[in-house]
Amino acid sequence: KAGVTQTPRYLIKTRGQQVTLSCSPISGHRSVSWYQQTPGQGLQFLFEYFSETQRNKGNFPGRFSGRQFSNSRSEMNVSTLELGDSALYLCASSSRGVSYEQYFGPGTRLTVT
Amino acid sequence: SQELEQSPQSLIVQEGKNLTINCTSSKTLYGLYWYKQKYGEGLIFLMMLQKGGEEKSHEKITAKLDEKKQQSSLHITASQPSHAGIYLCGAASANAGGTSYGKLTFGQGTILTVHP
Known about the structure:
The complex is a heterodimer of chains A (113) and B (116).
Chain A: E1 5-7, E2 10-13, E3 19-24, E4 31-38, E5 42-50, E6 53-57, E7 64-68, E8 74-78, E9 87-94, E10 103-104, E11 108-112
Parallel strand pairs in A: 2-11
Antiparallel strand pairs in A: 1-3, 3-8, 4-5, 4-9, 5-6, 7-8, 9-10, 9-11
Chain B: E1 4-7, E2 10-14, E3 19-25, E4 31-37, E5 43-49, E6 55-58, E7 61-65, E8 71-76, E9 85-92, E10 105-106, E11 110-115
Parallel strand pairs in B: 2-11
Antiparallel strand pairs in B: 1-3, 3-8, 4-5, 4-9, 6-7, 7-8, 9-10, 9-11
């Protein structure tokens, strides 16, 4: 089976712009979670989608949003980018959630200038 | 909220040496994951533990979850340069609704350097 794929792998944006990141889970997996990783805060949970419904959300401002499509692919959107949004964004997929093995993609490196 | 403490924060060993990384939780663990990460890359799944007293091994890496399910250890036998990287433990915990679904809380990571 193919692993979790994320596109794009690298992105440079300017403050105030918006960005959309994409994640394709492992075939058959219905749960997709998103995380932000920074040197200062480490890995932090953003949100999780299962069968097109958001089941859980972390403590991030409303500028961070996401969605999941019927084929389980997920996108996350960050509007009005700030310098502090520069980070590695990782998505993870599992068949149903954390009671099952969760696999991560290679990440999208976002740099905000 | 749940917190995970990893120790040590960094570790430098000579190739061939054994080593242990610990992960301690402030709350009961409902599932404990171990991952390895190369800097700037994605997380590689190593093992998942769910039952108290559970122990799993893969090649030269063994992970255990203690009986009280509040601490896990990762042990590497006869370390090699290929083991170098950042090791992260991630935990699932029950939220107010009874399940954390797809949410994992992570420790700060342990940086492992293996000198040939």
